[in-house]
Design a protein that fits this description.
The complex is a heterodimer of chains A (558) and B (811). With 558 residues, chain A is an alpha/beta fold. Chain A is 24% helix and 23% strand. Chain A is built from twelve helices and 27 strands. Classes of the chains: A alpha/beta (558), B alpha/beta (811). Chain A: Its cofactor is siroheme; [4Fe-4S] cluster.
Chain lengths: 558, 811
Amino acid sequence: MTLPPLRVPQRVIVVGLGMVGARLADELARRDTDGALDVTVLGAEPYEPYNRVLLSDVVAGRTDVAAIVMPLPGGERVAVRREVAAVAVDRTAREVLADDGTRHPYDHLVIATGAVARVPEVPGLAAVPGQGTGSDGALPAGVHALRTLDDAREIVAATVNAPRAVVVGGGVLGVEVATGLARRGLQVALVHPGRSLMERQLDDDAAGVLRASLRDAGVSVHLGAPLAEVLVVGGRAVGVRVGGEGDGETGRASAGEVIGAGLVVLACGTVPATALARRAGLAVDRGVVVGPDLASVSDPRVYAVGDCAQPPEGSRGLVAEGWDQARRLAERLVTLAAAPPAPVPVRRGPSEHLRLPHDGERPTMAVRLGTLLTSRAPSDRGVDTRGTDVVKVKAGTLSVVSMGRSGAGRVAVPGERALRLVDPAAGRYVEAVVADGVLVGATCVGDARVAADLTAAYTRRVPVPVDPAFLLLTAVMPAAETTSSPERMPDDATVCRCNGVTKHDIAACVADGATSTEDVARATRATTGCGSCTEAVCGLVEWLGAAGRETPTPVTAR
Amino acid sequence: MTAAVARPTPARPTATHCPYCALQCGMDLTPAAAGGAPVTSAPVASAAVPVTVSPRDFPTNRGGLCQKGWTSASVLRAPDRVTTPLLRGVDGALAPATWDTALDLIATRVAAIQAEHGPGGVAVFGGGGLTNEKAYTLGKFARTVLRTPHIDYNGRFCMASAAAAGNRAFGLDRGMPFPVTDLAGADVVVLLGSNVAETMPPFVQHLARARAAGGLVVVDPRRSATARLVDDPQGGAPRAGRGGVHLQPVPGTDLVVLLALLHVVLAEGLADRDYLAARTSGFDDVARSVVAWWPERAEAVCGVPADELRRVARLLAAASPSRGGRGAYLLTGRGVEQSTQGTATVTAAINLALALGLPGRAGSGYGCLTGQGNGQGGREHGQKADQLPGYRRIDDPAARAHVAAVWGVDPATLPGPGRPAVALLASLGTDGGPRALFVHGSNLVVSAPNADRVRERLGALDLLVVCDTVPSETALLADVVLPVTQWAEEEGTMTNLEGRVIRRRRAVDAPGHVRSELWILAELARRLGSPVDFPDDPAVVFDELARASAGGPADYSGLSHARLDADEAAGGPGLFWPCPATGPARELSGPGPLERAPGPDNSRARELSGPRAGIGAPGPDNWRGQHPGTPRVFLERFATPDGRARAVVVDHVGPSDDVRPDAPVYLVTGRVLQHYQSGAQTHRVPELERLVPEPYAELHPHLGQRVGVPDGGRVRLTSARGDVVATARWTDAVRPDTVFMPFHWGGPGSVNRVTTDAVDPVSAMPEFKVCAVSVAPAESPEPLPAAAPTDDDSAVPTDDDSAVPTQEVPV
């Protein structure tokens, strides 16, 4: 027996221990079953990786801050260096230089530095030189972005002494924070420069329903109200002044209006953290410019994933997208490292999924074991590629979901049908967009059940009803007549499930002289299983006896 | 076939148990000639039966019986009962033969096959309906006479995932580690993938309190009869605090529901931290792993609204002891277990239960609802590929030595682990695979997944021997069919879903030349020249089983038929394993190496113990001072080396055969009340067959309209493996993306021709419960496929009018 040739593992350096960087490291460890890769993650923050998506839940008081810490990636297989920030990349020497002086040579470098909160350039929020934007050190007291664990902690702490809050920005995060703070009992104003809320996702009607729902939740919404200034007294925020045209509908928040608040939360979007890439001479536009294979267009050994990346298809800033990128890149790096080099698997479009059979073939046991037995940490398997563009607002009982080709910015395509249910008085709006017999997009506000059904139908491409209008409601009919009303019960209704006894059987039994439940039980065995129907049988016997009827004519043939 | 003549029987009723499910309802059998018990008249005239059935007050059924139980006597006189051995002749037909001829032929063929192919040339396939004595003897026969590693059983299809997860977490697999009557005290009972209202109806009694408290939670992709129990039990519009909650996830995503529930429990600070610290290990990793399953993400995968997940998590937590509740139970069934992530799903249920501090606490817990009549005992006595009696591992040298000593053989002669069921069946008749197969208590061409392939493998064998009571679809393929006794014709023991060991008793003689498997195996052992002793008296076999189990996890050594009989006669509390021959019960002993768990466990246990369920109630004199059995295991410690329950990280992967453009609909399978498993018994009961005479598939009206299959029309479901034809029933009880079909039929309506044989990587349990199909109208009438020309003719009684439903015309 000959030993396989010794291989030197390929070194992968991942810069960033956020949700996507950690996920990538984990995906690499799980897929690399024969030690072909040597993975190191550099994380600037002192914390273990945490679930950034849940920060708005922390603000809302729905989630304990201790309950958002995620597993360190890859177990023993991944070297994690916390509080080690990458400061430079020497692409010629293929080394990353860290702020602790260490050098990290790489065969593949993955930049997963994420994004920082965007801070509007208005009076009161002047950035302090030497500090990055979005770091609270640069903001007046009482003003917070919501991007990091520290941000969330500080906002929660601030709610104790601030009865009033202003949330700046009416996108997904702004809506989540506003409802969350309102849930904590704060008086909340949401100021938004656009003419409608969540305008990247929702059209005017949907946004109108959302706005009304927010108002019902205790949030006052100010549209057409760009932030003009944060009012600061003694280094502490006391409110904001908004500019713009004001909201024509209500006349509120007209130009120059001042809204007092001791807590100001900025939810104005994010800026990709590209400084390291820029310094390394990589092509950077809004983010690090990468191709379909997630490799930098400037250097095939350098990749970017998550919020810092700018892939050809664009980015919505959703974690599902980043996790999907992590999966795809892990597959690619493991394939590249495999010896002998295997051809890159043929991509088959967006339905590409390790365990979905192609052309009818079943995944091999080796693949299945590989994905199952090493599943120590979160997997993306539940999030099919198709589901990466589902936007669901986490706002407690207020349900807002948008996915695919629906809502704002949808360009009508021939053959596509868009159906809508607009029911603002009931706080409900549903749009379903159907093409080729499947759901290709949907928006749903105010109906959690329909939203869940639409999401399932969208992500799995299951057949839609012949009349897609049925998609706008739950697919369950009103409850059937219960057994509590003997009169209205159909003749063939089963009264005793355990023994298959119908109302007709019992009626016949009473007509034959039965006068008690016991008589009926003897003759039909009704009530002799689990006994749940005893009351119903009793009621039937009484009613039939009182009516003094003969055996009724069958209502329904059996 | 001549009708059997019953020997004179005493008129006294015989106390025994129902032949069907693991609830093992108590019933009395009274010889028909002796006159009826009070509730005996059958509503539907049926064939003459030798006994009448009446329900008996027993803790699991409390005097209730479902329709299957009431009509079970009909199975004793099935019109096509096999009453003599049958041999396949040169003309290809099965013909009667004498026992000597049949057994000599089997012995000769087995010897020849083993001479050519070695011991592994012969395989054995057992069943979860066999008595403990038969299951034990079958394993012993395989290991000592055949010396083949190839033995497994149909419990691999139903219990393996729960067993694997239970063993991993608790160090022991007893389906319900508490008496079923304990459920009646809980505020919340969660049923995951279990349709008890159809599969074990009298069980529903134990849910009454949870329903009244609004605490019944049913997780099922289908609004099953059980899911409908969450509607207000009193009828009428839903009211607060009545009934419960039905979660209706996309098929194959139950695990996500559980991960999200645990996420909420931890996120909202509802976990029992003291319990986790004192009684579990590995939980921190689990806690971190579910951080990625926040409810909104879970919703996108499982289709259950995030807020419903939160509501259920809070409901559960409020019922947990650490938060002042009266208790909560999580129970899993085949719906979540028959999956390629079945072990993971059960593990997630256990993790959730651990977070809430439920397992090992009187009045709360996790349990698995065992399906088959002896599904619990059947997995303890050595008919599993990797197992020896007493739930011992066959690769454990100490276990091998102990059992070999009881059997009087050299441990070195015992084979090692064999292949689990699906792999075993796939290897039949292949190069290097077994050439002969014995089948006991299993109708596997109907009940195994990817059934067409199973049929093909059986066809490749040199010898197929089937022991059965009726000409089942599998028996009809056999070279030799051996007629065997059934429930009311035999003595023995069963271990029900609670781990309670109960007596099966003989009320009538078997007809014709029917013999017990114990006798058959003894005769074969003798013919094959084995020096090993094979008693055929069930009481003697049990005593040997008890010795073989001594010191194992499932320890029966303190039990005997005589003790079980005496306990029952004295109105005793029942006997649950482990019940070692000597020594006090764990529950009665002082604190063990680990201190007792925090919480009011002891007082709660006393409170729960009524006069009938009392722990350690004095039994008959002969057994005073003996171990009283263990109604509730884990109260002090788990059966792991450190006494702590192991929390294990699991994650969602999804079904092996997921929907795709050419198979865009999920298929889920299940049971109906009137039939049992492959229907070998219930299709022969006219009263049951009349109510559910043919295979059907439930379709949502939206799907029916989309694919052009009207209500009542014929529908064809096609998967990557095969197709099935059934009558369509439109109902909104199924999701529009899902069809449901019961699996009780052979032939063209056999849904297991469509299901996948992909298996769970830990338990090797196949993924019956979800696969992807295309749905299309089927032409009618359906021509029989050439591969299975005789199935329907033989599977269904030929004499009755039930094949053609009578149309009642309104007057």
